[in-house]
């Protein structure tokens, strides 16, 4: 769905800025007015790493007037494979300093507010106050939940993305969208603590080029919200599989399915959880099975459904498993033609998402707690199994 622009345009651009942004200003449906809206906009980017780096580059180049960049970390050599805003000579320096430098080199009219601070429950709302849009480029779910809570309290749209290994997701959350539109927030996609066991990129790695792809996509979503062009990823989750060169779109609805609001929702205090989903199928916890319980369920007729990617299942799978990558399950959960399943991934997070989608589609679903990492029994080669639903 399209939304009205978030900001009023500045009166005029300088001659230098008109020249620099000429290719934007001749875009059909964009033009001079949208470019002037960008010049008036204030975008906050939380995290100056793999996602924040390309977002800063893209938004500065696009001509956004003010960028607030929040990060308390220093550049490390291992960052340089994906955090393209930094250089070898920046190792040991504050990451936010790189944002100041590259923005000035790309767009002298862009003002960068570098905030070298760790975002927490006490300061999140203060750090993000005044932004028209927030981009979450952080890399841990506890921090993402803090950013989301602050944006909900402030009523600011949150452009959200996550990347790990060869996979990525992106969407837009907004607790106070325009009248007639129901809010969608982080808890509608990930209930509280559902992603607590997510491994870090340091543990499982991340494809550097995918960070650039997703960071640029997040910047595009911010541009669409600011200028009112196109259809933001509100109510939709874009799922990227870099290994297969495939993108899928998964609908996202409010878990509680409230009536469409006619005015912005009142601000909520940072850290206060979103109201739980109203539907029993959504609220009942997903059963977490031990390895022994999983084996027992399998013997009694349940199907072990492994939602990892081929590069992961190649290392070994539970005997008798059926292999269906997560994106395929989420895209068509009703196609899973099994009455009872135990969902398996590497550590549990993806299995939890798949199980919820399957349960909403009428499939009895549980999860192997801790995933394959917690499996103490022998595995078998993946090529010995069926890959069909």
Automatic annotation (TrEMBL):
SUPFAM superfamilies: Activating enzymes of the ubiquitin-like proteins, Rhodanese/Cell cycle control phosphatase. Residues 298-381 form the Rhodanese domain. It comes from the Bacteria. Residues 256-277 are annotated as: Disordered. GO terms for molecular function: nucleotidyltransferase activity. Keywords: Nucleotidyltransferase, Transferase. CDD domains: RHOD, ThiF_MoeB_HesA_family. SMART domains: RHOD (SM00450). Residues 256-273 have a biased composition (Low complexity). PANTHER family: ADENYLYLTRANSFERASE AND SULFURTRANSFERASE MOCS3 (PTHR10953:SF102), UBIQUITIN-ACTIVATING ENZYME E1 (PTHR10953). This is ThiF family adenylyltransferase. It comes from Microbacterium helvum.
